[in-house]
Design a protein that fits this description.
By secondary structure, the protein is mostly beta strands. It has one domain: Carmovirus coat protein (Immunoglobulin-like, Sandwich). The chain has two helices and twelve strands. The longest helix has 18 residues.
């Protein structure tokens, strides 16, 4: 039945405050479920290693899959991606603690996409297997006591692909935290930080 006389039509009810809050909560929950996983928080470290393992250039060897080398030399951090024989999407990030910052980032080629949303977080991405090696060089500055590396091959964390420092240390899991425990300023200066 339709209402033809406006003065006699019942006025539509506005939902009460409780109903509006419930609707807002339902909408918020729906948005959380529908948002893509692109907005993620940093995962808790799966391994913690002493920062000193990062010092010294590792020997690069031919390996079956993609390999990520991370080392410090000459006051800079170096990240070198050695491609495997097939194409893979490779990406990862470096993070520092406190007021540590990445400065003077130099990618080794135009194929390496580098993003730096804030001074203490550096993201990198490339596709392996299409040409030579990729990577980046960066200066690590500021007050930090941790450096964290996370590395993905085709959207899966791959700790077996990471080699750190001259001794080619492998983390047990990713993300891996390199921690400066008890490192005095002379130790850090000796290694160029």
């Amino acid at each position: 039945m339709s209402c033809t006389t406006p003065s006699r039509c019942p006025k539509p009810r506005r939902p009460g405050l409780a109903a509006r809050l419930a609707l807002a909560l339902e909408l918020a929950l729906l948005l959380l479920l529908l948002l893509p996983a692109a907005v993620t928080h940093a995962a808790a470290p799966a391994d913690t290693m002493p920062f000193r393992v990062v010092y010294g250039r590792p020997e690069f060897t031919s390996e079956v899959g993609v390999t990520c080398y991370l080392w410090s030399e000459g006051g800079r951090l170096h990240l070198h991606l050695q491609p495997g024989s097939t194409r893979h999407r490779v990406h990862g990030q470096l993070r520092t603690s406190h007021t540590g910052a990445f400065r003077d980032v130099i990618p080794s080629s135009e194929e390496v996409l580098v993003k730096q949303a804030n001074p203490s977080k550096l993201e990198f991405e490339t596709e392996s297997g299409r040409r030579g090696d990729d990577g980046l060089d960066v200066t690590l500055t500021g007050d930090f006591n941790q450096l964290t590396i996370d590395f993905f091959v085709d959207e899966a964390r791959d700790p077996t692909a990471v080699r750190i420092g001259a001794r080619r240390e492998r983390p047990r899991g990713l993300p891996a935290r390199l921690e400066v425990r008890g490192g005095d300023p002379s130790w850090l200066q000796r290694f160029g930080f």
